[in-house]
């Protein structure tokens, strides 16, 4: 592979990370380049396959809006890391730490004495006109005096090799979790290189974050509880929220998981309300409190700002910090740095001109053909434009707009991005792509600490002028080379854990997560039951030699709401069956329930193992295939067979792959209630049909209860009513039997009673006694010539209806008590 650089571009006026000005491989890249030269294309491909496999297995995603893959778009990671030598990194780190310190002081001033505005160092229009300047936060001093706990800065390298700041990220910076995940993957792809190059570890950065939040949280004598607040699974970086919550050991919460009582923030858990001392937010400023900020927000916590105002909770970063992300601000930072720090900026921003000052406007107008024009405020819906690329008429229109409201706009130079090598599989050689680098800082007791690495973002096209993950860009791991710093070892936990610290259940399990686990259990069982019944109906539809059995199955499908009734749009039976399978508008269709299952799974992703999540991803792919109707009954039957196998795998993970904690308990309760209701209602409906004693109908009833093999093994005979009912109703060893699920549910309710002082109304206990005391011999007497069999079967069906109804009531009671926290007295009054 000596010709790796055969097609590598060497464009003049561009800084190349790999090559110097004479086209030679830079010294700090030599070791990696030699490794590539010694490798065959097959070996490189093997490493690339490892990276892709790790991303898939770890479920690393980045949601791109309007992308066909939606919320499941895999994270893009290039095989080759970006290398930064130690001496260069020291300069970058010093500049980022200085900038973070400066911006923290700017926030303290604009929400405090506002001396910078009074002295003319900051234009009032830039601050007070910005959406994220929150007047309600004026005068608030956060605990510990830190406004900017977590900071990120986007850097680009100029042709002369210097780094320039292109953007400040002060509101809820993203990317640190992806940087850590990139490191986990790429270090495995190049283990020898990672060791030999002495790549700096990232762990100390996250330990510093933990320490800072714990130290500054207003916990008094309590152990501080820190939560990570996410806008939810539709956010583009939701994977990172889940990942960081796991790594930091923080509960991942949404706004509905928190409540404010008497200016104190609480987390709603199964055991009741637990005080929250600090909130690491990934939610934009104005969405955080619908009472005082954005009233249409459904993502925030009503009353959060009042809790902040009274110093009862730490919010990181401080509310209102997003005002510093204005692209009009960087041009004023050099003078502010001299004022507040007494020193020049170490990392300059890319040249910019805020057009709100007449002399600056005139200068910007002269240079406008070579600049980029942007809006200073998020409320201004204005896409950045290159005036030099507009025709005369459009440019004149733009200039008139700028002159009418000059304070709204900022003009800046277009960043000249450096080029870094990427591995191109098709040509089996190196290509160059523009890159930018996001670097992270965290406040500590002795100043800002910088992550020794970062998130390198790679443009999708070789001639791109902007690097954006939303525009199809990829990422690189960033390796800072040199001697490893003491105390910067890999992640080993925050503190030693002794016997007094042992925990065997999650004490901060949010009620919402438990509710979703409960419904995860219900929907997984519901999908399995629906798939079995659909397989029965489709199978009997194809094999129509037992019309009475088919009619019984169809009647049951209609009774349970799975099969639509015949109407003007769905005349034929085949149309109705496919609607039950694929109907996007039919609420009980298998497709609709699979979508609900995947939705709830995404909401509890942090509680599922990697293998469990992989099974769900496979199930999701199957569900997407289900959305492609082809009208072929045979293919639909094959699909249902495969789906039942996948759903069985989910059951196995629930029983064998999850810790038996409170979340697992509610998942099992959800499965038990769903299975109990389904089997009770199915057998009840079957017993009321004329085919209740038909052999073919009894055979599909066994299939519905997943008990056909057990029956054949025991009886070596065709299906008969009494042994079928014994197996599906009264056999306490059969996990699909009504009595098994009923007793399983009662044991779980007893556990909740002991653990949470929860009491049920006792209806299920009484019904269990009635079912246990049912004598099949009474049915036997009827079959051998006693009184009417219909009366006995109807009585048994009524008992099963009562069981299904009581199971539904138990579900409602659980929801009121544990999910919406309505106590028993209020539940009694409401009924």
Automatic annotation (TrEMBL):
<protein>
    <submittedName>
        <fullName>Molybdopterin oxidoreductase</fullName>
    </submittedName>
</protein>
<dbReference type="InterPro" id="IPR007296">
    <property type="entry name" value="DUF403"/>
</dbReference>
<dbReference type="Pfam" id="PF14403">
    <property type="entry name" value="CP_ATPgrasp_2"/>
</dbReference>
<dbReference type="InterPro" id="IPR051680">
    <property type="entry name" value="ATP-dep_Glu-Cys_Ligase-2"/>
</dbReference>
<feature type="domain" description="DUF403">
    <location>
        <begin position="509"/>
        <end position="819"/>
    </location>
</feature>
<feature type="domain" description="Circularly permuted ATP-grasp type 2">
    <location>
        <begin position="81"/>
        <end position="459"/>
    </location>
</feature>
<dbReference type="InterPro" id="IPR025841">
    <property type="entry name" value="CP_ATPgrasp_2"/>
</dbReference>
<dbReference type="Pfam" id="PF04168">
    <property type="entry name" value="Alpha-E"/>
</dbReference>
């Amino acid at each position: 592979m000596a010709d790796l650089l055969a097609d590598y571009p060497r464009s003049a006026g561009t800084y190349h990370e790999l090559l110097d000005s004479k086209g030679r491989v830079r010294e700090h890249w030599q070791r990696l380049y030699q490794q590539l030269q010694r490798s065959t294309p097959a070996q490189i491909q093997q490493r690339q396959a490892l990276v892709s496999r790790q991303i898939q297995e770890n479920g690393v995603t980045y949601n791109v809006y309007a992308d066909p893959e939606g919320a499941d778009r895999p994270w893009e990671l290039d095989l080759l890391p970006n290398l930064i030598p130690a001496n260069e990194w020291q300069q970058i780190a010093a500049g980022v730490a200085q900038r973070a310190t400066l911006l923290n002081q700017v926030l303290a001033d604009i929400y405090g004495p506002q001396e910078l505005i009074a002295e003319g160092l900051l234009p009032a229009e830039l601050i007070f006109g910005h959406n994220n300047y929150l007047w309600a936060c004026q005068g608030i001093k956060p605990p510990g005096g830190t406004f900017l706990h977590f900071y990120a800065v986007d850097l680009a390298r100029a042709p002369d090799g210097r780094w320039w700041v292109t953007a400040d990220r002060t509101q809820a910076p993203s990317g640190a979790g992806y940087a850590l995940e990139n490191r986990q993957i790429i270090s495995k792809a190049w283990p020898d290189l990672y060791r030999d190059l002495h790549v700096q570890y990232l762990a100390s950065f996250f330990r510093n974050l933990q320490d800072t939040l714990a130290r500054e949280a207003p916990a008094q004598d309590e152990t501080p509880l820190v939560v990570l607040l996410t806008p939810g699974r539709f956010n583009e970086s939701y994977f990172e929220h889940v990942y960081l919550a796991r790594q930091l050991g923080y509960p991942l919460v949404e706004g509905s998981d928190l409540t404010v009582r008497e200016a104190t923030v609480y987390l709603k858990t199964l055991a009741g309300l637990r005080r929250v001392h600090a909130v690491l937010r990934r939610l934009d400023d104005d969405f955080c409190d619908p009472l005082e900020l954005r009233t249409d927000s459904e993502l925030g916590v009503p009353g959060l700002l009042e809790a902040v105002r009274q110093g009862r909770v730490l919010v990181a970063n401080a509310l209102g910090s997003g005002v510093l992300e204005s692209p009009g601000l960087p041009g004023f930072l050099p003078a502010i740095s001299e004022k507040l720090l007494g020193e020049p900026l170490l990392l300059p921003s890319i040249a910019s001109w805020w057009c709100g000052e007449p002399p600056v406007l005139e200068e910007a107008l002269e240079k406008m053909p070579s600049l980029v024009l942007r809006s200073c405020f998020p409320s201004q819906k204005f896409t950045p434009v290159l005036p030099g690329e507009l025709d005369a008429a459009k440019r004149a229109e733009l200039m008139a707009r700028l002159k009418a409201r000059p304070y709204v706009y900022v003009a800046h130079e277009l960043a000249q991005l450096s080029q870094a090598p990427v591995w191109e599989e098709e040509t089996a050689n190196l290509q160059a792509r523009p890159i930018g680098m996001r670097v992270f800082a965290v406040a500590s007791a002795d100043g800002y600490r910088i992550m020794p690495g970062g998130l390198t973002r790679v443009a999708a096209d070789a001639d791109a002028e902007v690097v954006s993950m939303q525009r199809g860009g990829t990422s690189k791991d960033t390796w800072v080379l040199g001697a490893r710093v003491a105390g910067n070892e890999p992640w080993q936990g925050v503190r030693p854990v002794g016997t007094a610290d042992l925990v065997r259940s999650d004490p901060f399990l949010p009620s919402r997560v438990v509710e979703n686990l409960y419904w995860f259990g219900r929907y997984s069982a519901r999908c399995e039951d629906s798939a079995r019944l659909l397989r029965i109906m489709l199978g009997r539809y194809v094999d129509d030699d037992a019309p009475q059995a088919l009619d019984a199955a169809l009647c049951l499908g209609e009774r349970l709401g799975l099969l639509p009734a015949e109407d003007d749009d769905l005349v034929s039976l085949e149309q109705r069956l496919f609607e039950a399978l694929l109907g996007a508008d039919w609420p009980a269709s298998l497709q609709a329930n699979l979508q609900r299952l995947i939705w709830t799974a995404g909401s509890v992703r942090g509680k599922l193992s990697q293998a469990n999540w992989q099974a769900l991803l496979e199930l999701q792919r199957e569900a997407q295939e289900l959305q492609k109707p082809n009208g072929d009954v045979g293919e639909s039957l094959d699909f249902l067979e495969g789906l039942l196998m996948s759903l069985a795998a989910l059951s196995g993970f629930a029983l064998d792959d999850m810790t038996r904690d409170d979340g697992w308990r509610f998942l099992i309760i959800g499965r038990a209630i769903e299975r109990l209701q389904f089997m009770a209602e199915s057998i009840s409906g079957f017993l009321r049909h004329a085919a209740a004693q038909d052999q073919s109908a009894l055979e599909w009833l066994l299939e519905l209860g997943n008990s056909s093999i057990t029956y054949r093994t025991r009886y070596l005979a065709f299906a008969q009513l009494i042994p079928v009912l014994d197996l599906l109703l009264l056999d306490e060893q059969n996990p699909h039997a009504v009595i098994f699920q009923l007793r399983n549910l009662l044991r779980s309710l007893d556990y909740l009673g002991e653990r949470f002082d929860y009491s049920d109304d006792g209806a299920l206990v009484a019904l269990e006694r009635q079912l246990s005391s049912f004598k099949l011999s009474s049915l036997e007497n009827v079959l051998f010539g006693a009184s009417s069999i219909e009366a006995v079967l109807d009585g048994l069906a009524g008992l099963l209806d009562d069981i299904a109804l009581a199971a539904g009531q138990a579900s409602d009671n659980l929801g009121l008590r544990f999910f919406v926290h309505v106590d028993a007295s209020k539940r009694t009054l409401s009924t």
